[in-house]
Amino acid sequence: MLYYLFHWLDVKYDFPGAGMFEYTSFRAIMAIILSLLISSIFGDKFIRILKRKQITETQRDASVDPFGVDKKGVPSMGGIIIITAIFIPCLLLGKLHNIYMILMLITTLWLGLLGFADDYIKIFKKDKEGLHGKFKIIGQVGLGLIVGLTLYLSPQVVIRENIEVHQPGQEMQVVHHRENIKSTQTTIPFFKSNNLDYADLVGFMGKHAQTAGWILFVIITIFVVTAVSNGANLNDGMDGMAAGNSAIIGITLGILAYVSSHITFAGYLNIMYIPGSEELVTFICAFIGALIGFLWYNAYPAQVFMGDTGSLTIGGIIAVFAIAIHKELLIPILCGIFLVENLSVILQKAYYKIGKKQGRKQRIFKRTPIHDHFRTGLSQVEKGSTVLFTQPASLFHESKITVRFWIISILLAAITIATLKIR
Question: How far is CA 58 from the centre of its chain?
C-alpha cells in the first residue's frame, strides 16, 4: 500500500524521497526491519494474551526434557506471530499486483489456516491427534494444485532462457533470449547445461510433450509442497530448531531470487532470468525478519511454541518460493535437514512394522524425528525393544542439538549456492 502511495507521490508531485520505494533493495531492507520489529514487539503482547487465555501446550511429547525443563504450560500457536509479521510488511511495501507476491501471500494464509485448525483441535478440543492426517494432505495437495496451475496459466510467469555462446579462441559467454517465454524448465544442480525441461522427460508424447511437461510440473509442485511442509512440521520439535533452520534456508532462497531477477547476475551464474521475481526478495526478507524476531521468544528455553500454525506455514512458504524461482530441484540439498527428518520417521515406522509382523519390537533410532534420537537415552525406549543405532550413548542438551542443526543448515545452504557454479 505504501508502495502505491509513494509511487503516486513521486509521479504526481515529484515528492522528495518517494522514488526510493521503486527500489527492491530499499523495500526489502525495510521489510526485514519492520517484520523483525513486529514479531519481537507484538510477540511479547501476544504471548501474554495466550497465557491469559490458557492457550498452552498440554500434550507435548517429552514435556520434561532430560535436563529438567518442564515445557507443559508454554503458550502455543505462536505461528500467528510469524504470519502477522510477514503479512503486514508485504501489504505495506509489496507490489500487490505481482503474481509472485500474490502466490506467496495465498500460501501463507492457506497453510496458516490449515495449521491453525490443527492447533485448535489439539488445544481446545483436547485431542492430541489434532486435524486428521488426510485433511492435512488434502489441504497441502490443494495448495500445490493452485500454485502449479497458477504458474502454468498466468501470463506474468515467464523466463528468459540462458544460452551458452562458444566462439573459437574466446571465453564462453552467456546470453539470454530477448523474448519472455512460458517454460517448464528448472535449474538442475551439477549438470553443465544447468537447465532441465520437464517436457524433455515426456518427449515420447510427441506434439503433446509440452502439455504433458506442465502436468508433470504440477504433480512435482504438489509433491514438493507436501513434503517440505511436513518436513518443517517434523523439524519443529526443539526450541528454536525450525525457526533457525528456516531462517537460514530463507536467506539462501533470497539470494537465489535476487540473482534470478537480475539479468547481469543471472548471466554471470549461467542461470535463467525470471522477470518480476524481484518482488519475492521483499517477501522473503519479511519471512526472515519474522523468524528472527520469533526466535527472541522461541530460543531455549522457549516462551512460546509456533505450533502447526507456524511449522506448516514456513515449510509451505519455502516449497512454493523455491518452485516460483525454478529451484525446486535444489530443495533436497538446501532442505536436507527436513529431508532427513522425514526419512527418519518413514524408515522408523517401516522397520517397526516389519519387526511387529515377526513378533519383535525393533527400532532403527532411539526416537524419531532424528533430532530426538540425540536427546533420548536407551532407558527411555520402550521395554523389550531393540535399537539398531544406539550411539551416541550420552545425551546432548537440546540447545546444543539445535545449534548443531543450524550449522548443518548453513553448510547445506553454502553447498546449494555453490551448485550454481559446480557443474
Answer: 27
Q: How many CB atoms lie within 10 A of CB 411?
A: 12
Exposure of 39 in the CB half-sphere (CA atoms within 13 A): 33
- Phi then psi for residue 173, to 5 deg, are -115, 150
Residue 133 CB contacts under 8 Å (≥ 6 apart), including other chains: none
Q: What is the pLDDT of residues 354-394, one digit of tens each?
A: 998 888 889 999 999 999 999 888 888 888 889 999 888 88
- pTM of the predicted protein model: 0.93
Sequence spans of domains, the chain: 2-161+183-331, 346-392
- How far is the C-alpha of 376 from the C-alpha of 379, rounded, in Å? 8
Q: How many residues does the chain have?
A: 423
H-helix or E-strand spanning residue 364: none
Q: What Rg value do the Cα atoms of the chain yield, rounded?
A: 23
Neighbours of 409 (CB within 10 A): 25
Angstrom distance (rounded) from CA 423 to CA 408: 23
Instruction: Report the pLDDT value the prediction gives residue 363, as an integer from 0 to 100.
Output: 93
